[in-house]
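Risk register update: the risk of archive-format incompatibility is retired. Evidence:
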Amino acid sequence: MADEKKPDSAGESADAAKSGDVPADDASKGAGAPKDAEAKDDASKGAGAPKDAEAKGAGAPKDAEAKDADAKDADAAARTADADDAARTADAKDADDAADAKDADDAADAKDADAADAKDADDAQDKSDKKPSSPWPSARKGETPAPPVAKPAPKPEDSGKAAWGAPLAKLDRAWTTLESRLAAGVLVAEVLTLVFWIGIRALSATGRAGPGMIFRALLTAIVLGAVAHRASRKHERHEVITTAAVVSGLVLGTQWGEAGTAYFSNLFAWLQNASILVFFGGVSELAKRFTLWLALLGASLATAQGKHINVDVVMRFLSPRARVPVAVLGWLAAAIVSISASWGFFDYVAVEEMRAPPTVVCPGEEASETPKRCPAPPMSKVDRVTSSASRNFFLATRQLSLDLKSFPKVITGTPYNQWLTPREWNEWLRAGGWERRFAAEDVAGFVLPEDGSVEFRNPSVTAIPGGTEAIPKLLVPLMNLVFSFGLLVIGLRFILRSLLAISGWVKVDPAAAHGDEELAHAHDHSPEADRAEAKMKETHS
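Archived output:
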């Protein structure tokens, strides 16, 4: 039995060593027992002959003992091989268990990582939902760029837009852009004009008390505060330094006294008495016209976006399809009223302020002693306004040419009414082409003698050759035409919006006055702005 187990153990040991399941040393140990047993058998066989010869003489008991010893050695070797096989099996099982445990740990780690990523994504989404990203780029400098949001597909109703309305929609957008920029420009011009005029007037007054002292104190505080702010931006006590500079400016501003009073008085007098501002009636009249122009521009923009004042009770009870004809009817009626009012204002300005005759002799009544008079035709009033505007604009351009000569003198401190000599005035008069618009004898009345009897001439146009109208506020009637022009534009806006509604390019929605869909992407086209807008729409839907 021992001889049959030896080869199997050795073969298993060799196979295990080849397959790599157990180390080569263990395999060699497994195969070592049979080899030792074989070596012992060989040795016992080699030495057996003498021993057998001697044993012949010693007797049979020694042979029996030798055979028993060999059998015991073979059994011990077999048990050793079996123990090695059991150890190898246990090692392989332990390795398999360790691999399974490692795989389980890796799977658990991956699951934990996925759970953490999902939690971070949920937290980020919650944070985005709770605090939508600001649509202004300056407020998103520290934010992580969000992935682009897919824009929704065009709605089916977009296909209902008529092709002939596309040019009108383009015109409407360009018109709105122009009026928006004009409104911004007029607003800035009005603010700057008023601030400049208040400043010049205050600086021309005494600085010892009253408005002059208050303005000088505020001006000094602003200047010193701005300088301190820029100089100490990186200082740790920036706020304290800036505040101290402002307070110091308020105190120092009260110490100006009469400094600068004479200089600014000369500048203020020139602007008020001998500049183009005289044609407008001063800064106050100019500011009033700016305000009216701004209001009419705003009304036109509101009309273009359907946000003009209207009663929409009936519209809310109508279906979307029934709203269009009702809205168009209302807009066309408003256009008729606006255009009619435009002509009414034009007629008033032409008759009352530009002296256009309201009536003329009726046709066929010229030879009668008491001819009947009929209303003047509209074109006669248009001609009167056109001719008066052309004449007044010519006089205004001549005044501007004088202002360009006066400005360097006044800025350098020269009294505004002590630099234009009679000779310089006559040269300026002859070079202006006055004879092309007025009679030569009327222009000759403006020539000054150069014999020294007149020392200086006021640098301003003070009268109209051959006319009786006053120069102050000469351009005010033209500025009053802003009423007529503004109402005409509003009427045209109503007509354009009606056409856009008929062509399907404008939706008739009573709630549109409460939204800003046209301005949703005016400043920001980023994905964050799109997400914020979508969130707002979901909230209000």
